[in-house]
Specification:
CATH class: Alpha Beta
Number of helices: 11
EC number: 2.1.1.10
Number of domains: 1
CATH superfamily: Homocysteine-binding-like domain
Strand order of the largest sheet: 1-12-9-8-5-4-3-2
Largest sheet: 8 strands, parallel
Strand content: 15-25%
Radius of gyration: 17 Å
Organism: Saccharopolyspora erythraea (strain ATCC 11635 / DSM 40517 / JCM 4748 / NBRC 13426 / NCIMB 8594 / NRRL 2338)
Cofactor: Zn(2+)
GO molecular function, one term: S-adenosylmethionine-homocysteine S-methyltransferase activity
CATH architecture: Alpha-Beta Barrel
Structural class: alpha/beta
Domain Hcy-binding: 1-296
CATH topology: TIM Barrel
Number of strands: 12
Distance between the termini: 21 Å
Length: 297
């Protein structure tokens, strides 16, 4: 089933933190590949995590490819051909989970495309400003976008983008790829993580038909509503919202601190702001998604 027209559909429930769920199932994801390591080591566990979110009410699964890249796999001794096969597997596993549960119920697969900084495994995705040119970033993203698009996802999730340069690169890299995409920034204090105004950031996607929605993810829930208002005003496109739990990530210690502030009840307010895709990111569990789904029509 093709991905729905987000301009006319009711809000779609996205899943939550895939890596969080895998960690809850006993997996140590502290290495540089994060959840992408399990594409090789324990693919059946990825299917189980997807199924947990589908059972909770999600209708879109994001794949375990956020931190997957040719350089990242190469550093682990995985050649280019095998790396491409693992990226394709991320889509296949999500599709398998979607079809295993109530195969007639509409469900979709979003191929996760994380920022360049995620592959550095040092918190750079929360800072941006890598010292690379837009051309460098296009060269990094385009090959894995081609592989993921070739695996047949319903949509590409260009997510946790920290700054304007990477957004420009991703919009260029996804041009003509043949799969619709959404572009989602990680934000703080009403700006991109690199400090740029959100109006300027969202403007990048305004006139690109391949980008079917824009929004925010992996940010504090409190950042969502104001960012969505700017995104809609600037682009006129449907918007996506999937914040983290509200806890804080300590990149040095590689751990989360503080208490969860994920408000499932806020989903209806985000829908009122025009959010067409609503879910969670890091530290958001299936129970949280179930609470969120229960507040939507």
């Amino acid at each position: 089933m093709p991905f729905p027209d987000l301009c006319s559909s009711a809000p779609l429930v996205l899943d939550g933190g895939l890596a969080t769920e895998l960690e809850a199932r006993g997996h140590d994801l502290s290495d540089e590949l994060w959840s992408a390591r399990l594409l090789h080591d324990a693919p059946e566990e990825i299917v189980a995590a997807h199924e947990a979110f589908f059972r909770a009410g999600a209708v879109i699964a994001t794949t375990a490819s956020y931190q997957a890249s040719f350089p990242g796999f190469g550093a682990r001794g995985i050649g280019r051909g095998d790396a491409a096969a693992l990226m394709r597997r991320s889509v296949e596993l999500a599709r398998q989970a979607a079809e295993r549960l109530e195969p007639d119920r509409p469900r979709w697969v979003a191929a996760s495309v994380g920022p360049y900084g995620a592959t550095l495994a040092d918190g750079s995705e929360y800072r941006g400003r890598y010292g690379l040119t837009v051309s460098d970033l296009v060269g990094f993203h385009r090959p894995r976008l081609e592989v993921l698009a070739g695996a047949g996802p319903d949509v590409l999730a260009l997510e946790t983008v920290p700054d304007l340069d990477e957004a420009i690169a991703l919009v260029e890299a996804v041009d003509g790829i043949g799969v619709p995409a959404w572009l989602s920034y990680t934000v703080a204090d009403g700006r991109t993580r690199a400090g740029q105004p959100l109006a300027e950031a969202f403007e990048v996607a305004r006139d690109h038909e391949d980008i079917v929605a824009v929004g925010v993810n992996c940010c504090s829930p409190a950042e969502v509503a104001p960012a969505l208002a700017i995104a809609r005003q600037v682009t006129g496109k449907p918007v996506v919202a999937y914040p983290n739990s509200g806890e804080d990530w300590d990149a040095h210690c590689r751990t989360w601190t503080g208490a969860s502030r994920f408000p499932g009840t806020a989903a209806s307010a985000w829908a009122h702001e025009g959010a067409a895709v609503i879910g969670g990111c890091c530290r958001v569990r299936p129970d949280d998604i179930a609470d969120l789904a229960a507040t939507l029509p």
